[in-house]
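Posting for a labmate who doesn't have an account.
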Amino acid sequence: MMPLPSALEALAPGHYRFQVEADHHVFQGHFPKEPIVPGLAQVDWAIQLGERDYGPLGAFTGISNLKFQRIIVPDEAIELRLTPNPVKHTLAFEFQGADGRKSSGTLTFESRP
């Protein structure tokens, strides 16, 4: 699990606003002169916050409709929206910035007994 940004504000279940501080662990190695939040961190944060708001999601089984459209840089204002679908065992996510959608996708989990 990747540490969540410290400046994380819950606006409603499945809706967050945050900034990733410039010294956050996630920027190490991505990239020294032009740091960006890696896609894996975005997916991990969506899962962590989905479980925070909606309870255990089950074992992760895949991603569909994954799109990385714009980079996320240090101290940029970001909003994350999560949309669970308990019937399909999915969690859709979308990261947004002032310049539009940053990334989106649908995470799939094994059904829970």
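Reply:
Got it, the structure tokens are right above this. The helical segments are 39-54.
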